[in-house]
Design a protein that fits this description.
The chain is α+β, with helices and mostly antiparallel strands. The chain contains three helices and twelve strands. It folds into two domains: 122 residues, Thrombin, subunit H (Beta Barrel), CATH 2.40.10.220; 77 residues, Thrombin, subunit H.
């Protein structure tokens, strides 16, 4: 619990630093993970996190959005964040986002897991329990706006396996039912998705079951 509290305290310091434009004066949590971001014009680019907090993040990217531009940034293992570009940096940009206290606690725990995941290699392959849903149908909207009928093979709080002959590019944004997600992998029967945010059991029932 002490370690968890320390993580929350540190990421709050980092959030304050982003908002004040003085990140170097405060302790940050360096976390380097792959991601993608979508600009206001819906164009998408690859990126990598440089440091992350519960209020914002610094992103390494060859493309720098305009200051004040709204972006959606997806990081592996952390999910998606809608935010506003706060400033340009020599290797990318920093953006800020607002999240609830509940999601802040979850994000702090996720950051702690990322920092310590090498100590628990068996835990990294699948974080959330999957529910078998083979036979259930849903819709999938891909990047060009086309909506297709698909089979929901299994489901968890963080993602789903979809049965479909379609193969949207890995890393592309899609909408499964009413839930925004990113394509994480292709498999024999279709694709694996990771939701941009964790879904509660109630949200899973309302949207898919």
């Amino acid at each position: 619990m002490a370690a968890h509290a320390s993580i929350i305290r540190d990421v709050r310091y980092s959030a304050d630093a982003v908002n004040a434009g003085e990140m170097r004066k405060h302790r940050r949590l360096p976390v380097s993970i792959a991601g993608r971001f979508m600009r206001a014009d819906r164009s998408e680019y690859t990126c990598r996190s440089k440091d992350v907090s519960v209020g914002g993040a610094a992103v390494i990217s060859s493309i720098t959005p305009e200051v004040g531009e709204r972006v959606v940034v997806y990081f592996d293992h952390l999910g998606g964040f809608e935010g506003v570009v706060a400033r340009a940096t020599p290797d990318g940009f920093a953006f800020v986002y607002k999240i609830t206290e509940h999601k802040r606690e979850k994000l702090a725990a996720q950051i702690m897991w990322l920092i310590n995941k090498d100590d628990f290699p068996a835990e990294t392959s699948r974080i959330h329990e999957r529910i078998g849903t083979r036979g259930r149908r849903t819709t999938l909207r891909v990047e060009d706006g086309v909506i297709i009928d698909v089979e929901l093979l299994d489901l968890s709080a963080s993602g789903a396996s979809i049965g479909t002959p379609a193969r949207p590019p890995i890393g592309s944004f899609v909408v499964a039912g009413k839930t925004r997600a990113i394509v994480r992998r292709h498999h024999e029967h279709g694709i694996g998705l990771q939701f941009l945010s964790l879904l509660s059991p109630e949200a899973l029932r309302d949207r898919f079951l």
